[in-house]
Amino acid sequence: GCQHGCLYGYGRPTHEALGVSAGEYFESKIFVKTKAPELLRERLMSRSWEPRLIVSSGNTDCYQPAERSFRLTRACLEVLAEFRNPVFVITKNHLVTRDIDVLAPMAADRAAMVMISVTSLDDELCASMEPRTSRPAYRLDAIRRLAQAGIPVAVNVAPLIAGLTDEEMPRILQACAEAGARYASFTPLRLPFGVKDLFEDWIRRFRPDRADKVLRRIRELRGGKLNDADFGSRMRGQGVFAEQIRALFHVARRKAGLESEFPTLSTAAFRRPTSQLSLL
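The structure assignment produced for this chain is given below.
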């Protein structure tokens, strides 16, 4: 689950596999893996483990409010730092700046990078659509602090909502570049299973004047449907309008001076702690 409460959260349906709803319970019933750091250490200590990139987040945000209390993300990062196993962190929460002291030394070994998701620069829109996330100004501040600490930062304009936030993309990329981001990408909105009903209900209540346009544009990107289950196209969209959005992104990215090719994080510094290292 995720306390951020993003209406569009594509991770919501996974909650149903645990026997609870993808709606309100996704935001209020949070399942916590309390032994994650110990299990991670055990796995990395195994001789069968070959060092490779680990992505922190993806389904839900590893820096959601619960992390302030449980500190499991930080504990996992400390394990990865001890091994110098590369990590790619994805978040939309300013709380990531708390762990700069762990991420910066890893970044010096090309073993850490952070991606900040930015949906919009409109505070009112964010407050309604993603109620318990960091507001846009705080996300820009997170980019600034991470970059100043030498940690490579990417911005992901995500989710990009056709007919609602796509026109903001140039401003978002420029603002993030000025804050210190070096790389950029975008991801069109995905509405799997029950998420499409939650989103449609929200857009008709929050922006009734644009609801039909937004839903029509999403369908244009998704082959006439609100969701595309095909992995190859669901992350890019398809059709003429998808091409227009991609063209806008490439122009805006170049103008902002951002790169689309992310750096390859390195496993060269990987080491398994010995008893001597553990004492240092």
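Interim note for the steering committee: The radius of gyration is 19 Å. The chain has 14 helices and five strands.
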